[in-house]
Amino acid sequence: MQDIFPQRIKMIQGVIIFFSFLFLINLFYIQIIDNKYKLKAKDNAIKELIDYPSRGLIYDRNNKLIVHNTNQFEIMVTYAEVDALLDTNLLCRDLNLTKEYFIETMKKAKKTSQYRPYVFLKYVDDSNYQRFQEHTFKYKGFFGQTRFVRQYPYANGALLFGDVGEIDSSQIKEHADQYVYLSGDCIGKNGIEVYYEYLLRGQRGIRTVVVDALNRVKGSYAEGANDNDPVAGTNLQASIDIELQRFGEELLTNKKGSIVAIEPSTGEILALCNGPTYDPNLLTGGSRNKFYPKLLLNKHKPLYNRAIQGLYPPGSTFKAPSALVSLQMGAINPNFAYYCPGYYPIGKKSLKCSHRHAPCRNIEEGLTQSCNPYFCQVFREAIEIPNSKDFQNDYDRWYKNICRFGFRRKLGIDLKNEKRGNVPDTGYYNRMYRNQWRATTVISLGIGQGEILATPLQMANSYCVIANKGYYISPHVIKGIEVKGKFEPNKDKKIKVLVPIDKIYFDRVTDGLEMVVEKGTARSSKINGIALCGKTGTAQNPHGEDHSIFVGFAPKVNPKIVIACIVENGGGGGGLAAPIVSLMVERYIKDSLPPASQNRFNSIKSRHLINFQLDE
């Protein structure tokens, strides 16, 4: 009988120990592992609010503010805190919502997290937000939050500046190693906004506040000891001249094409225009979801950045770089003469000259007359060297030299999705023709046709080499980055690339390009008081009217600007592209247009090749 009591005591002790152990495990789980009760208790007294930073501002080269921010409000909800007696009708009335929206959004909030804030309503306008604020004490679990959205006062440069939108799950993963983005955060999507996201975004802050039972903020928690102030994004100075950008976009009204203007001595992009274009303010705030699908599906592709992605045969604008390569290779001399019979024989076929003219006695006259047979022969002299035993090696020399002008490579502009273009190498033609090809097989390369493709940016860059007489600076759109209240040069983008060609050859080719405008194929685009040097191009298009191209620089001595223009289906280069470049040059150098030029501007602006409607 006496032995029973110790056994019962041990049994009772064991039961007590067992249940105590279970209690401790449960307590550990609740307090350490599952913190929802801790969060719920904590949120009844204090609340963590996010302070979103102001995104970095963007100025143009003349310090005009071209991208800034404006306040935007949104409503947050913590599902677990919402009062069961919430007056949903009043809330929906204050926020101008339907009951269906309220029900669906609350379901999403519950599913995402009952104990953490969820975005209930984005892009709330001022009047609705003020009504909400007046009754906020009735809406336990709901609170307002301020964000910043982009604004573009000039309504230009849509594809250049890009846009900002809500981050998606793939982008959150992509940036996980660089910056912690949260669901609902905004991020740069295109253009400068995405390329310089790491500078523009800033750093979010956290405020811990005390709230009462009616969800009203009573003050800072612990006197702000745990708060982190937001850090504004870095301001940038673009190389763009916003007035020139606007002027170029007007010239491309209801046209497909692009204009790229570069300051040759620095590589700074002065204008990067696309047609058709749109007001970048359409993709800000709540309007983004409405207009982005329309832009994406529009048949004229306004979201396609033709300046850096469009690939076109450069046409006769290619004759100047090709001539310089042939001169430097010693294949021809500056006084190389060729009698044009009106065609160039290619076996049993022939390539016609575009117009009648006198024999070309030198490189200047060849450029002035834009003689196709002349430049076919120039190209042939470079790759079909007499007594050479290795034709493909000769072609390879020409290929490497022409690529030095920036063709067939990405130039490294500080915008995403730049295309590299194409200049066929020997391997390409060997595969195409099974090693059976000669100069006449690929003779169209000499006049910028055939398989050669270039972006408008590459075309402009190749003439920067001519304007600079032997080099280009990698083209870029951000000129300065703000450091301690001052813009410091964007040194990472100023890369100098040398093109080893003798100055005498540049001088002779430049004289020829001047004559193109003075008395050649672009003579209708002369500018009083400014020596414009350039070359027209008419790029063959199998899908319709030829593309109109012109690339040039001005003035002839110490050039200040290089411009490439392409107008899809615009016809001859002298008819549309050359006048556009002429007006752009005059507008930039003179800072105004005389009446006669203003009339030409109005005429070109009103010439519609397409009818761009956003609802198409």
Break the fold down into its secondary structure elements and pairings.
Blueprint: H1 4-33, H2 36-43, E1 46-51, E2 58-59, E3 65-77, H3 88-95, H4 99-112, E4 118-124, H5 126-134, E5 142-151, H6 158-161, E6 164-166, H7 169-174, E7 186-188, H8 191-195, H9 197-200, E8 205-211, E9 217-220, E10 236-238, H10 242-251, E11 257-263, E12 268-275, H11 288-297, H12 306-309, H13 319-328, E13 343-346, E14 349-352, H14 363-369, H15 372-383, H16 391-403, H17 426-433, H18 456-468, E15 471-473, E16 478-483, E17 486-489, E18 496-498, H19 503-519, E19 533-539, E20 547-554, E21 561-567, H20 577-590, H21 595-605
Parallel strand pairs: 2-10
Antiparallel strand pairs: 1-8, 2-3, 3-4, 3-5, 6-7, 8-9, 10-16, 11-12, 11-21, 13-14, 15-18, 16-17, 19-20, 20-21
How would you characterize the overall build of this protein?
- The protein is about 35% helix and about 20% strand.
- It is α+β, with helices and mostly antiparallel strands.
- The protein has two domains: about 45-205, Alpha-Beta Complex (Penicillin-binding protein 2a (Domain 2)); about 240-290 and about 305-480 and about 490-605, 3-Layer(aba) Sandwich (Beta-lactamase), CATH 3.40.710.
- The radius of gyration is 33 Å and the shape is elongated.
- Residues about 35-45 have low confidence and may be disordered.
Label the overall shape.
elongated
CATH topology of the largest domain: Beta-lactamase
Second rung of CATH, namely the architecture of the largest domain? 3-Layer(aba) Sandwich
Q: What is Rg?
A: 33 Å
Q: Which structural category fits the helices and strands? A: alpha+beta
* CATH class bucket of the largest domain: Alpha Beta
Please tally the β strands and state the result: 21
Mean pLDDT: 89
Low-confidence stretches at least 5 residues in length (pLDDT < 50)? Answer: 36-43
- Measure the end-to-end span: 98 Å
Can you summarize the main beta sheet? 7 strands, mixed
